[in-house]
Amino acid sequence: MLDSLSEILQKMDGVDYSGAVMEHPLTKKTILRVKTDAGRLKAADAVKKAIQELKEISAELRREFERL
Questions:
Q1: Residue 27 confidence (pLDDT)
Q2: CA pair distance 25, 7, nearest whole angstrom
Q3: 68: in domain
Q4: Which of 5, 2, 1 is nearest to 53 (CA)?
Q5: What are the pLDDT digits (tens) for 2-39?
Q6: Count: domains in the chain
C-alpha cells in the first residue's frame, strides 16, 4: 500500500521526493519519506491528498471488479 501511496505522491506538484522503505522484514516497520517544497505544499497535506486519491482508485477498482 505504501508503494502505491508513494507513487501517487511522486506525481503531485510540490512534492520533491517520496519513498517507502521497510526497515527490516522481521520488525515489519515501514517508513514513508516525503519531501516537499514547504512554501507550496506541506508534507502532511500531500499525504492526506494522496490517501484520498488512493481511496478513490480503490473504490473504482472494487466497482469494476464487482461488475465482472
A1: 87
A2: 21
A3: no
A4: 5
A5: 999 999 999 999 999 999 999 888 888 999 999 999 89
A6: 1
Q: Can you tell me which residue has the cell 502532511?
A: 44
Contacts of 16 (CB under 8 A, 6+ apart): 35, 36, 37
Q: Which domain holds residue 42?
A: 2-63
What global pTM score does this model have?
0.86
Query: How far, CA to CA in Å, does 15 sit from each of 24, 54, 58, 67?
Result: 26, 16, 22, 35
Chain centroid offset of residue 55 CA: 10
Q: How far apart are CA 67 and CA 42, in angstroms?
A: 38
Q: What is the CATH number of the domain that holds 11?
A: 3.30.1360.10
Measured torsion, CA atoms of residues 42, 48, 50, 53, in degrees rounded to the nearest 10: -140
